[in-house]
C-alpha cells in the first residue's frame, strides 16, 4: 500500500487573483499523503490579452510537478509556435520542452532541491498506490503464454525497481505469506539525497518460483519472449496516437529486452551498461522517475486552448451545463493501449507494465527510453491532447482539478457545486477551499461575460 500520515494535514494553501477578464481562486491540501505532490500555475498576464492556468498532479515525488509549474509559462512563450500564433501547437511544444529539460543532467540538482524534505515512507514506483504484486491471471493471455504460465498456477508477479533503476519481473508464490513480507529487506545505501525510496518486497523462495526461474538464462529468455509477445499481441481496434513529423515505428527494445541483455552480459562477465534515472551519483542520468499529470488552459482574446496529459481535468460551465474539455488518459483506453503495446510495454490491472496507472504524463522517464521512437510513440508520452473553442456569452467559469476531485464528483456535480456557491456570493478561493483530501483545484470565473453578477441580479 502507499504510505500515509497517521493524521491528515488539513491546512490549505489558498490564493486568488483578478483582472478585467478573470477572477480566479486556487486551493491545495495535502491530506493523508506523505507529501503534497501537486503544483499549479496561474498567470493572469502572460502577455497582453493572454492568460495561463494549470494544475500539475505529481506522483512518485513532487519535483516534476513543481518544476513544470515554475517553468511551463515561460517555456510556452519561448516556443516557435507561440511566436507564430499557433497556440495549440505551442502548448504541445511547451509540454515536450519540460520533458526535455528535466532529462538533462544539468537540471538534476534543481530537481533534487525541488524534491527536498524527507523521502522516508514515500510510495514506490511512480503512480503506484498499492503493493505491486500481480496475480498471473491479471496479465494478458499472450504474455502468459510467452512466460509459460497459466492463470491457475497460483503465482504472483511483482514489478520491482532494481538497483539500476529499471523495473524487473520477480516471480513468486501468490499465497497469503507473501503479503506479510517485510518491506525494504534488501540492504543498500539509502543515504543519498538522490535516492528514491521504494517499497521493495523480497519474495521467499517457493517451489513455484524455482520451477519458473530454473536459471537466470532461462528467465532472460522468457523476458525476451514476453517483450516480443507484448509488441505483437492483440489489441483493441484503435487509431495510434501520432503527431506531425513523427518517425515511423518499426519496433523497439522494451525494458525486458534491455534487462535480459544485462543478465546475459553478467553471465559472460561483462558489466551492464549504465541505465538508471536518479538512484545514484555514478549512473547515467535519463531524467526523474517521478512524474505528474498536466492540465492547462491558455486564453488569448476570446479563444480558449486546453492541453491535457493524464487524468486531471478541465471543465467549462456553459449556462450551468458541464462541458468536458479533456479526457482521462488511462492505459486500457484503446488508443493508449495500442501505443503502449507498440512501444514494447504491456497493461496489467489497468497499469502500464503493471505499475503506472496513467498513459500520459510529464516525467516518468523510465517509460520513455525507446530511442527509435518519437515522444508521441513512447510507452508513456508527454504529448497532450489539445482542444480549442471560442468563449462566448453564457460561458461562466472553468474548473481545473486533479483526480482527487473527480474521484468523488462528476463533471456536472462539480459545476453545480461551484455555481451554487458563486451565486450565493462566495468568492472563487472560498469555493475552492471546500475540497477533499490531497487535492488541488483552480476555479477561473470568466468575469468578462458577466458571471456571476449579472446572473445573480437576474435571479433576485
Automatic annotation (TrEMBL):
Keywords: Hydrolase, Magnesium, Manganese, Metal-binding, Protein phosphatase. One of its GO terms (molecular function) is metal ion binding. Its EC number is 3.1.3.16. Residues 203-217, 227-236 have a biased composition (Low complexity). Residues 165-287 are annotated as: Disordered. Residues 175-196 have a biased composition (Acidic residues). SUPFAM superfamilies: PP2C-like. Residues 23-446 form the PPM-type phosphatase domain. It is an enzyme of class 3 (hydrolase). It comes from the Eukaryota. Its cofactor is Mg(2+); Mn(2+). InterPro entries: PP2C (IPR015655), PP2C_BS (IPR000222), PPM-type-like_dom_sf (IPR036457), PPM-type_phosphatase-like_dom (IPR001932). PANTHER family: PROTEIN PHOSPHATASE 1G, PROTEIN PHOSPHATASE 2C. Belongs to the PP2C family. This is protein-serine/threonine phosphatase.
Amino acid at each position: 500500500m502507499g504510505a500515509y500520515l497517521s493524521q491528515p494535514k488539513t491546512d490549505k494553501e489558498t490564493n486568488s487573483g483578478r483582472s478585467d477578464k478573470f477572477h480566479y481562486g486556487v486551493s491545495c491540501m495535502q491530506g493523508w499523503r506523505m507529501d503534497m505532490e501537486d503544483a499549479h500555475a496561474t498567470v493572469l498576464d502572460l502577455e497582453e490579452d493572454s492568460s495561463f492556468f494549470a494544475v500539475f498532479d505529481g506522483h512518485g515525488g513532487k519535483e516534476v510537478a513543481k518544476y513544470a509549474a515554475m517553468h511551463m509559462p515561460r517555456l510556452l512563450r519561448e516556443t516557435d509556435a507561440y511566436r507564430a500564433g499557433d497556440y495549440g501547437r505551442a502548448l504541445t511544444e511547451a509540454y515536450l520542452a519540460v520533458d526535455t529539460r528535466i532529462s538533462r543532467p544539468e537540471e538534476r540538482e534543481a530537481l533534487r532541491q525541488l524534491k527536498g524534505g524527507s523521502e522516508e515512507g514515500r510510495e514506490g514506483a511512480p503512480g503506484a498506490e498499492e503493493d505491486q504484486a500481480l496475480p498471473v491471471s491479471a496479465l494478458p493471455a499472450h504474455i502468459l503464454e510467452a512466460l509459460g504460465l497459466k492463470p491457475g498456477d497460483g503465482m504472483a508477479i511483482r514489478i520491482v525497481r532494481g538497483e539500476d533503476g529499471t523495473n524487473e519481473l520477480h516471480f513468486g508464490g501468490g499465497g497469503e505469506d507473501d503479503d506479510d513480507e517485510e518491506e525494504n529487506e534488501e540492504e543498500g545505501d539509502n543515504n543519498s539525497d538522490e535516492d528514491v525510496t521504494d517499497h521493495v518486497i523480497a519474495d521467499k523462495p517457493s517451489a513455484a518460483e524455482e520451477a519458473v526461474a530454473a536459471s537466470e538464462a532461462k528467465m532472460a529468455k522468457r523476458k525476451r519472449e514476453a517483450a516480443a509477445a507484448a509488441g505483437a499481441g492483440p489489441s483493441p481496434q484503435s487509431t495510434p496516437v501520432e503527431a506531425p513529423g513523427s518517425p515511423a515505428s518499426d519496433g523497439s527494445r522494451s525494458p525486458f529486452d534491455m534487462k535480459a541483455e544485462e543478465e546475459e552480459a553478467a553471465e559472460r562477465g561483462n558489466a551492464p551498461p549504465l541505465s538508471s534515472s536518479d538512484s545514484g551519483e555514478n549512473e547515467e542520468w535519463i531524467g526523474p522517475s517521478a512524474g505528474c499529470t498536466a492540465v492547462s488552459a491558455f486564453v488569448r482574446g476570446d479563444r480558449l486552448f486546453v492541453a491535457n496529459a493524464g487524468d486531471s481535468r478541465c471543465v467549462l460551465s456553459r449556462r450551468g451545463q458541464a462541458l468536458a474539455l479533456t479526457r482521462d488518459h488511462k492505459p486500457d483506453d484503446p488508443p493508449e493501449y495500442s501505443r503502449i503495446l507498440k512501444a514494447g510495454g504491456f497493461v496489467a490491472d489497468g497499469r502500464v507494465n503493471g505499475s503506472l496507472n496513467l498513459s500520459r504524463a510529464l516525467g516518468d522517464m523510465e517509460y520513455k527510453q525507446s530511442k527509435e521512437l518519437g515522444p508521441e510513440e513512447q510507452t508513456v508520452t508527454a504529448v497532450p491532447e489539445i482542444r480549442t473553442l471560442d468563449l462566448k456569452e453564457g460561458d461562466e467559469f472553468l474548473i481545473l482539478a486533479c483526480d482527487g476531485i473527480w474521484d468523488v464528483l462528476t463533471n456536472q456535480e462539480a459545476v453545480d457545486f461551484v455555481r451554487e456557491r458563486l451565486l450565493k456570493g462566495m468568492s472563487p478561493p472560498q469555493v475552492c477551499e471546500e475540497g477533499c483530501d490531497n487535492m488541488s483545484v483552480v476555479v477561473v470565473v470568466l468575469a468578462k461575460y458577466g458571471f456571476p453578477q449579472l446572473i445573480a441580479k437576474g435571479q433576485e
